[in-house]
């Protein structure tokens, strides 16, 4: 069964270009959740075949990261080129070969130096690398802004550098910060101290795991700090998504699905009065709307149009939030009902308008009078 499922997900992959649909005949599609797993399985199998080759006896070190491989070779350069040609004939995967030059070799983001058969390290940056990171004044959450420094400082602490190279790399990070308006320098120094402290704790308490829960919401500057403080006692950390940029909105050429084919939280407005109904569905909106219109099964909006002889239409029905996740559907439906009850321009006719819950949106709405974003 598993083999058939793999065949199904690898053989039935389609994409659109210029409003035409194409089927992939070779390779794995980007974005498919199973592509990474299948790629690793394939490379693992290929690696086993390579290790069974006769010339593999000249390999004393073989370290692989995805499809980048670091090798220490004890044979001749001619034997190395022959080995390279052999492994490229095993499959359609073609490896390139890069050998050390002047006792130096760049591998991933590290430069390795061969000093009398002793390897030393330094940080490597490609010639095309720039010092551009998210600027300090950009409308992003602090966590997203700090991600670049978390990476740079963690790499600095995890790479065994000599004191001079460590000092130079630290100054490089400070310069990157200054070039992106992260001032004063004490801000970046404090970030480094915090990360270094975490490294010390990790080395001292090697078996201790700090279990944090994470909640992802769009970033809103005026409520982010208040909300994070409210969640801190529960070991919950906020992670934020960014808002769509004007460029992203204007350059999105993907065909949009009609709203009546979408699912999520919806609002039906009566054509003849100010009554509204809030609901949720994981099916197509048109399917659920048809049931309301026939009042089968019974619903508040169906009963309303039957008793008053009013009408409803799919054009006067909106999708408020697009999602199929049950927990999100429940919370968002409660939120939209809660919001509709505060709107004096409409009359909510849902049968159930009170819920035995204490969702954070109530705290945010009452404390900051800030509406939640559409999803």
List the keywords.
extended; single chain; 4-stranded mixed beta sheet; alpha+beta; 3-stranded antiparallel beta sheet; 375 residues
Report on this structure.
This is Reverse transcriptase domain-containing protein. With 375 residues, this protein is α+β, with helices and mostly antiparallel strands. The chain folds into four domains: 1-99, no CATH class; 142-203; 213-246, no CATH class; 259-368, GIY-YIG endonuclease (3-Layer(aba) Sandwich), CATH 3.40.1440. The protein is built from twelve helices and 13 strands. The chain has a four-stranded mixed β-sheet with strand order 12-10-11-13. Strands 5-6-7 form a three-stranded antiparallel β-sheet. Strands 1-2 form a two-stranded antiparallel ribbon. A hairpin with a 2-residue loop joins strand 1 (14-17) and strand 2 (20-23). Helix 4 (142-158) packs antiparallel against helix 5 and helix 4 (142-158) packs across helix 6 (185-204). It is extended and about 90 Å long. Residues 365-370 have low confidence and may be disordered.
Q: How is this structure best summarized?
A:
The chain has helices at 2-11, 35-51, 77-88, 142-158, 163-179, 185-204, 221-231, 246-250, 285-294, 300-308, 326-341, 360-368; strands at 14-17, 20-23, 59-65, 68-73, 104-107, 110-115, 118-123, 213-218, 236-241, 264-269, 275-281, 317-322, 347-348. It is an alpha+beta fold and 375 residues long. The protein has four domains: 1-99, no CATH class; 142-203; 213-246, no CATH class; 259-368, GIY-YIG endonuclease (3-Layer(aba) Sandwich).
